[in-house]
Amino acid sequence: MKKMAYRVFIFITLMMTIASAAQAADMLLFDCQRVEKNYTEDYEMKIVPATVSQKAKIYLDDRDLDQSDANGTQVVKSIVINASTILINIQASFEPEVLNGITYSAGTFSTQINLNRNTGKLTKTEEIHGGILGANLGNGTHLSEETCQPAKVR
What we know:
Auto-transporter adhesin head GIN domain-containing protein, 154 residues, two-stranded antiparallel sheet, alpha+beta
C-alpha cells in the first residue's frame, strides 16, 4: 500500500512539474528600452498568453496593464503571437479631471504594438483623443519605436 501511495505521489508531483514548466514556457520576457530626446527608460515586459481560463496579460516592470479605477480604464484587448511577431492592442478611456486648476475633458487612448521578435524592434502607434493626454501630447496619431530583446536568464 505504501509503495502504491508513493507512486501516486511521484506521478502527481511529476504532472504538476510538467504543467508548471509548460506554463512558464508560454510566458515571454523581454528587456526593453525607450529613448526619447535625452531621456532613456529601461523596463521589463512580460507577456502571458491566454489560457482556457484566463485572458492574455501584459506586465511592465510587474505592473499589470489591465487597470481600472475611478479615473478610467485600461484593457489589453488582444495579443497575437507567432514565430516572428507579437501584436498587442490596448484600449484606454479616462474620465474628465481637474489637475492644478485645469479642467480636462474625458479622453480615449488606443495603442497598437508590433514587436518584431527577430530584430527586437518595437513599433508603437498611439491614437489619442481628448483628455489630459490630448491636451499635453496632442490629439491624433503618435508613432514611436523602442527596442526589446529576450530577457537573459535571471
